[in-house]
Amino acid sequence: MNRLLASLLLAIALPASAADTELNLYSARHYQTDEALYKNFEKATGIKINRIEAQEDALLERLKNEGANSPADVFITVDATRLAKADELGLFAEVKSKVLESRIPAHLRTGEWFAFSTRARVIVYNKIAIKAADVQSYEQLADPKLKNQVCVRAGMHPYNLSLGAAMIAHEGEAKTEAWAKGLVANFARAPKGGDTDQIKAVGAGECGVALVNSYYVARMMRSTAADDRKAMEGINVVWPNQQSWGTHINVSGGGMLKTAPHKEAAVKFLEYLASDEAQIYFADGNNEWPTVPGVKVKNPALERLGPFKADTLEIGKTSKGAIAAQKIFDRAGWR
Ligand SMILES: [Fe+2]
User: Fold this and answer.
1) What global pTM score does this model have?
2) What is the pLDDT of residues 283-295, one digit of tens each?
3) pLDDT tens digit string along 103-142?
């Protein structure tokens, strides 16, 4: 579909000039539990949600192209790097909200966007091939001891860039580059696939150890498929860096757009996402943790994974280092 036609159709689907009885939401989330989340908001406020769902980067591109004419009020997506990118493009408006400021911990929000759930970048290892003591930190994955053992998706992926950015913030660029080089030297294979593929490869013994997001682990823990069960039997999960800066945390979150036609509804919706009820739906829909302290999700897989020390680096700061991380990973040959 050409862009003009697309925007015409969008203009019909999403009236930008309507009163604040509706909200245009651009979402990169597509979980069934989100349906209940939106329905509850509509019921509680009488504001109708018009939802456009697409892949994260596609939505960002669309917002960029629509510019000032965008009908979007709120953009929600996964990964701090993508949220920071939207912010750098000047898409987000400043939001002043006592509710959001009191509910969401300071390190999990900026002045423009807010994290509504967290996920951790964890280590999974093959029980037979690897000793637990050798894989307790991100740094250890670069130890020559693990030659031909490490599997991980492409370095350019936001999940890895965010981890690299966190490492830069904690250890500096020189140490991060040395780490990336060591990691690449330990690769069991050239990076390919997503995080689930790495978990399966570790389960099958094709790789000894991998870096993956926690929700993929939780999803496989809850899976009844025979091959998933088999893979999970072969692996253990580690919370990395418990003796130092804590396990790297990423987020899923969102903010109000500068060009939002329904600003009042947008803030209301963001505040709703920070309510106890919405926090549970938002986080649990993807096996994540709520960002609002004290909100308890009943998720058997997350319960089995247990508590851990999470990195408390400011999420806004983490994501800003992504460009430096990309350069470092390029030089290290992590493609
Ligand atoms: Fe993911």
Assistant:
1) 0.89
2) 998 999 999 999 9
3) 999 999 999 999 999 999 999 999 999 999 999 999 999 9
- Residue 65's φ and ψ, nearest 5 degrees, are -70, -35
Residue 195 CA to ligand 1 center (angstroms) comes to 7
CA distance 246 to 120: 10
Q: How far is the CA of 237 from the centre of ligand 1 (A)?
A: 17
C-alpha 261 to ligand 1 mean position (Å): 30
Cα of 283 from ligand 1 centre, angstroms: 13
Q: How far is the CA of 278 from the centre of ligand 1 (A)?
A: 20
Q: CA torsion sign, 252 to 202 to 129 to 167?
A: negative
Q: Look at the block and give the residue holding tokens 């990336």.
A: 180
